[in-house]
Amino acid sequence: MKRMVLAAAAALLVLAVAPTRADAQVCPSGYLWNSWSRRCVRSCPSGYYYSYYSGRCKLRSRYWRACPSGYYWSSYSRRCKAYRRCPSGFYYSYRYARCERLTQNCPFGTYWSAYSRSCVSRCPTGYRYTGTRCVRLASSCGYGYNWNGYRCVRICPPGHYYSGGRCLSRSPSYGVAISHGPARMRGRTFRAMLASIYREHFSSGKLSVVRSYASSSYFSCYQVRRIIGAINFSSDKIKALRVLSSRIVDRHNAHSIPGAFTFSTDRARARRILGLL
Fold it and tell me: Which residues are 72's β-sheet partners?
């Protein structure tokens, strides 16, 4: 009796996960419907196999071998692995390692269109079928626009960038002062303190680097604060910083350091100066 109950339960489980015609889709040219993975997969040329991880045809290695029905070749483990089974209306995503709902679970002979958000027999103009849904073609963007992978965005002229639906000017940035000397403030080297500023601001494109050729002197906390206060400045304040830099005083030798700072907008050079590469 117990065996009969187990057999009946196993039969119900098989029926729950077995490929059904209701899950089947009409695939576009170049794709084939795989009833085990419940997906349209690319029809690969001779010498290639379809990778469920990358979603592309990959060249067969010397380790590759054909797998029996219900199995696929895993290039990672170099062996045939059984298809993961999901309930009807779902497919197994090897990228996310979980069962995903078939968003294009449409009646037989149609498939899902993200454009019209409905089941259609083919993708609309400007879209292509990826094996799971219709996606926009980059070439379908109008003149002066380009596809960024998510939507059409305006192509901006040199020196500008696209933000908030319009092209904005890339204003020149100026501003992190660094010292080759052992200047310290509250136990931190001036260089390390400015490197921290670099990580917070320069890497996001807000600041460039102002290089110091000057001294190994110790700056007073007040003088350091004045320099830090001048870091977040715009291009119209650059002269003020030059004046400030020429007034830095070596407390030990009591002389000014004229021309202590020069400006560099070369990011690669700036990173080398900071020693962050």
Answer: 81
Contacts of residue 164, defined as CB under 8 A and 6 or more positions apart, other chains included, come to none
Amino acid at 118: S
Pairing outcome for strands 166-169 and 160-163 = antiparallel
Domain end (from 105, 122, 154): 105
pLDDT at position 158 over 70: yes
Structural domain including 229 reads 176-274
pLDDT score of 102? 64
Cα torsion 72, 73, 75, 76: sign: positive
Q: In terms of DSSP bridges, do strands 176-178 and 209-212 run parallel, antiparallel, or are they unpaired?
A: parallel
**Cβ(125)–Cβ(115) under 8 Å?**
no
Residues 267 and 180 in one domain: yes
What distance separates the 2 farthest-apart alpha carbons in the chain? 101
User: Is the pTM for the entire model greater than 0.90?
Assistant: no
Residue 41: in which H helix or E strand, if any?
strand 39-42
CB 237 within 8 A of CB 231: no
Alpha carbons 245 and 259: distance in angstroms, whole number: 7
Task: Render pLDDT for 23-32 as a digit per residue (tens, 0 to 9).
Answer: 445 566 667 7
Percent of the chain with pLDDT over 70: 26
Pair 85, 55 in one domain? yes
* H or E element at residue 4: helix 2-17
Res. 263 pLDDT band, cuts 50 70 90 = very low
Q: Are residues 88 and 159 in the same domain?
A: no
In a domain, 129, yes or no: no
Q: Are residues 83 and 147 in the same domain?
A: no
CA 32/CA 44 separation, integer angstroms: 10
Examine residue 3 and state whether it is found in any structural domain, yes or no.
no
Question: What token pair was written down for 265?
Answer: 């907008």
**pLDDT score, position 122:** 64
